[in-house]
Amino acid sequence: MQSGSRLGSDHIRDETTLAVRDLWVTYQARRGAVKAVRGVSFDIRLGETIAFIGESGCGKTTLGLALIRLLPKTATIARGGVTYARNGVDADVLAMDPNALREFRWKECAMIFQGAQNAFNPVLRIRDQVWDTARAHGESDSQRIRTRMLELFRLVSLDPERAMNAYPHELSGGMRQRVLLALGLLLDPQLIILDEPTTALDILTQRSVIEVLRNLRQQLDFSLILISHDLSLAAELTDRVGTMYAGALVEVADVMDTYYRPYHPYTIGLIRAVPTLSGARRDLISIPGSPPDLIEPPTGCSFHPRCPYATAPCDKAQPGLETVGLNHQVACWNWQTVIADQGARLATEAARRD
Amino acid sequence: MAPIMQLVNLSRSFKVGRATVHAVDDVTLSIHEGEVVCLVGESGCGKTTTGKMAVGLLRPSSGEVRFRGQDIWKMNTRDFRVYRQAAQIIHQDPYSSLNPTQTVADIISAPLLRHGAARSRHAARDQVAELLHRVDMTPPDDYLDKYPHQLSGGQRQRVSVARALTVNPSFIMADEAVSMLDVSIRVSLLKMLGRFRSEMGMTYLFITHDLAVAKFFAWDGRIAVMYLGRVVEIGPTARLIGHPQHPYTQALLSALPEADPVATRQKERVQLRSMDVPSLMNIPRGCSFHPRCLLFEPGLCDVAAPQLVDIGHATEVACHVLARQHGLQ
Fold this sequence. Notes:
The structure holds two protein chains of two kinds. Chain A is of the alpha/beta class. Helices cover about 35% and strands about 25% of the residues of chain A. Chain A has helices spanning about 5, 60-65, 100-105, 125-135, 140-155, 160-165, 175-185, 205-220, 230-235, 255-260, 265-275, 335-354, and strands at about 15-30, 30-45, 50-55, 75-85, 90, 110, 190-195, 225-230, 240-245, 250-255, 320-325, 330. In chain A, the strands form two sheets. In chain A, strands 6-7-8-3-9-10-12-11 form an eight-stranded mixed sheet, with helices on both faces. Chain B is an alpha/beta fold. Chain B has a single domain (about 5-100, about 145-325), classed as 3-Layer(aba) Sandwich (Rossmann fold). Chain B has helices spanning about 45-55, 75-85, 105-115, 120-135, 155-165, 185-200, 210-215, 235-240, 245-255, 260-265, 320-325, and strands at about 5-15, 20-30, 35-40, 60-65, 70, 85-90, 170-175, 205-210, 220-225, 230-235, 310, 315. In chain B, the strands form two sheets. Chain B has an eight-stranded mixed sheet, with helices on both faces. In chain B, strands 2-1-4-5 form a four-stranded antiparallel sheet. The interface of A and B includes residues 204, 275 and 278 of A.
């Protein structure tokens, strides 16, 4: 289970593409400030794929929007830093003026939104929408764009000529999603953010999009941030997983650790609540209670009212991410108890199997 | 014992402009008392249309829906009323299936008053409280006077369930009842629905696109896989998930990612001949799966639609090639 090669982690380079430090985002609502992202910090290396998982309202989409500064007007980045690096040159994303931002978006970092396969202009052919995109970002060499686009369409397993000349309604949902992936890569960005890329797609179509994504990652050099509530998708595609709860990052670990050795009580709860297909039916355990109110989140650790490991200090102060193993960070006051407990549970399970 | 619900050669088509959409085509299915049958399939396969016909919300174009042996569309008014109470529905969207201007007490007491199970609003309130107990919304007094917007998604879905239970149904059609809920909440709702089977012998037609959810909920029941309006495979859950027989079922199961990195990356994938899903207005001749199927044989598969045949292990498949392999054709 440890083998790195099966994971294909050799494509990751020791070069940080994006560094996020203590990022806070709040929305102004009538009842008060909604703290949607609370003190998130992480790094993503070139070639790496990281998934942010969590349930609705945990702040994962807001986090994605904040990274390319596409937040709605009611939202403000209260504090924090986002540093983007390419070829050894650092750029402070939060300090960019509108012109710099325009350069940054799509050329350096592209985001593909949830349901965007339905956001094409229905009266324009795909090729016109490709050119509009290119022109808006200062590319005027139409021949070069055309060559690049045809190449990308081939990479995402589309018939290039047919896709170029099609109107959006002539393409199926899966094909539109693949056009979108190609379009995202048009200006050779180094970072792609995908928000729920396969939600609303059928199972077999979803498979084709997953295969295309895997293929793209092998052929091209870019980092990928995957935002999804779907734990299966993250298990299949990513190198690392960040679990979000109530706006905070509660655990960051390699994908194998997240699924087989999770140490945050919330991650443990999530993994145990998901039904699987292979193997016998295992009992699922739900997490009691419901997600907290983000306007007045619980004091201390926001998971403590639902947490089986909660003790006295948990409602006093918010725990920060602590390194508990190789590439493994957890924000939990009782992580040592949890690890001991999990170790015992894994051992009994292994004993039962033997 | 006779099945509680029988769908017999059920078909339903819709007119769209000048064209006709064959949403459900010749579906035959029996559900026994206390059993769970899951209908699974991709969007547009006709699972919701089938479910709506089972609870009498849609009239079939042809075929029969029999409830305890009686064709529901030939029942007299009184029997039909009894059937309508016995067969209840849980909808997918807990946000749009509850009236936002009514309190929980209003929503749940409406059917009690309508069907004469409670004489007054006051008496209904006590019954509502008891129903809230049954769906684990305790203490009921905390919820009785709340409006749907004051509840979470999971709580709203529990109110929908409580409303379905008001008239003591024996059959529930649940259409994607947990799809819109978060993972952590989904399980407790599924477990609660499962508990009603042992507590009150509830029978379910459970419609979902999620095979893993179907596996969890119908582990001791059956799964029916639909493709373009027809049932292509039906069998005991453990058997169907572990040893899928129909090429479409195999493709579906192999395509699904799983929340287990090693398992999902090592899974063998079934490649199909074509990724295009045919339009319901222009369903391929013969077996509708033949343009995509790996077992396709010209002259066999593209002539007549295959019927479900029993291939052992209580499993039935609709496939010419498999039928021949089992010496049934």
